[in-house]
Amino acid sequence: MRYRDFLVLMGVCLIWSLNVIIGKVMLSSYDIPPFYYAGIRFLGVAIVLSPLLRPIPQRIGQVALVGLLVGASHFGFLFLGLSAASPSSAAIVLQLGIPLTAMLSVIFLGERISSLRITGIALALAGVIAVMWNPEQMTASIGLVAIVISTSSLAVGGIFLKRLPPIAPLKLQAWVGLVSWVPLLLASWQLEAGQITTSLDGGYVFLAATLFSVLVVTVIAHTAYFGLLQRYEASMIAPLTLAMPIMTILLDVLLIGGHLSLRTIAGSTVALAGVLITLKAQPPARRDPVPSQT
Questions:
Q1: What is the mean pLDDT of the chain?
Q2: Within 10 Å of residue 194's Cβ, how many Cβ atoms?
């Protein structure tokens, strides 16, 4: 992987980390219903990127399936999980997506994982778990089940994405938004209550959080992520995203006043070492052209 692309991926992880903190505040402090919050997010994405919906891409059925997996299912269940589970336990379960993506990429895409890359993945995953492990908070709950569904949806969606014909990442985001907002808002209508009241109570904070989620997280970060996923092997990209939970912990310390323990420092060091080993173990990047953003 080129170091420029590596830095782009780290920027994506930073934006995702900010989104976790903002999302947790909106779901917990402002009581925004999770499916509603995710649905409003993708409605905004569909509106902002609507000019990119045409011409209709090839294999539109598969594009819609990818959109439902990485959009409605991933974010709907992610927000549901964050609203019901502790952040530490949710973060641990989310890491199941790393080995799951690598395993699926070997089974369905024929990718090969070297022993050095396996070592890097294991070190990174061990470091993340060491940082976040808290036995007192690891209790079975609907929140953890939702997080498992969320991370599994993203992993499977990433594999289907690799099988699609070339499609511009921003165009893909437009279709993700289009196919995701309807099922999410229908689920909210059937399962949740107080959507309008909580939105009005949230006021400008809710509006700012929604705009950040639509414009920065989805349009910028996820578009960049999908672009990288199209250029590099899925088993290469997934382990490097382990930087995201480490960044989340650091942001918690810097922005919310969380405590940075020796265990956190040690685990972060191991995880970052695993990320660096994974980066060094990558084969040369394919020289496929980067899809156009229009």
A1: 81
A2: 12
Q: Which of 264, 173, 254, 175 is nearest to 216 (CA)?
A: 173
Q: What is the DSSP letter of 241?
A: T
Domain membership of residue 294 (yes or no) is: no
The residue assigned the tokens 């990209």 is 237
Beta carbons within 8 Å of 162's beta carbon, 6+ residues apart = 105, 109, 229, 230, 234
**Domain carrying residue 261:** 3-280
Torsion sign, CA atoms 28, 225, 242, 81: positive
Q: How far apart are CA 286 and CA 284, in angstroms?
A: 6
Question: What tens digit of pLDDT does each residue of 210-237 get?
Answer: 999 999 998 889 888 878 877 887 667 8
127-160 tens-digit pLDDT: 767 766 666 555 546 777 888 899 889 889 988 8
291 cis-preceded (ω within 30 degrees of 0): no
pTM for the model: 0.78
The pair of structure tokens assigned to 199 is 């939105």
Q: Between the CA of residue 293 and those of 89, 271, 279, what are the distances in Å?
A: 37, 33, 26
- Whether 293 is in a domain gets the answer no
- Considering its fold, how many domains does the chain have in total? 1
